[in-house]
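Consider the following input, taken from an annotated entry for Beta-RFAP synthase (Paludisphaera mucosa).
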Amino acid sequence: MTRLRIRTASRLHFGLLGWGPHVRRQFGGVGLMVEEPGLELAAEPAERFHAAGPLAPRVAALLDRIPDRWTGPTPVRPVRIEVVRAPEEHAGLGVGTQLSLAVARLVLAASGVEEPTLDQLARLSERGRRSGVGLHGFLHGGLIVDGGHATPGDVPPMVSRLDFPEDWSILIVRPPAPSGRHGGDEAAAFAGLPPVPERTSERLCRLVLLDLLSAAAGRDLDAFGAALGEIQREVGAAFAPAQGGVYAGPESESLVAELGRLGLVGAGQSSWGPSLYAFGTPSDDQKRALTARLRDRHDLGPRDVFWTRARNRGAGLATAATPGPA
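Applying the prediction step yields:
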């Protein structure tokens, strides 16, 4: 018998680039894959599809739909999938997308499909309906820009992918705030948002191409932080009608300002939040001091404040033998 194991990253989403009748390709987006908190799943052959561990009901629902959605020549085989490690959902870290893609990848690998296409993974996982960052990040890692949807339901193309400087440390902070919008609530929020003004969309595209990507490629942390800060302000203003301000709440806005005062750059909110991020190159001692300060001042726990780094590779799939029947 063979046991499969997969480890995938988390996703920071820096912002969408535009939507509305004047935009030829809807949404588009830019984001970064990071090592932590990440997800880890395992799968082994079974007589029927079965899910176990954290988020098992969500995995079970995916497993129920995958056989009907699969159109390849090789039939999918039943597996037992265990979620070994997963962070809390709806915190702005792309857990739903990475979990769904990991489940689809495990099912296909267990059925002998070694190199599924992105279209196949997107169809089975039912992800990528707005942003394609998580889809492409699952396969490739790194700093990613997707080009948006030409038609509803298509897979947005990856128009840029860069290795992100791994010596730039990334601080993740989750303030005490409600979960980010998702599912029907998210769809309703988008339906109620006004179109992004054409000039705003043009400015966001310029900031991403000429400032953000160029700064990352040139390893200029201050320029990267300045560009990301501007992107966050523009995107936040576009989402303000749905979330009540540039950020998900006043605590988030206060924390973003504080992270800047502490010497970090590019502070902002990932997707709908509530998770926040910031970048820097502090020493280990400085990291410990910053972490302790934020936890004490804001009554946050170990899972609410932590450091990570970019993940410049896609999800890792490994095979290990499992004991057979005696």
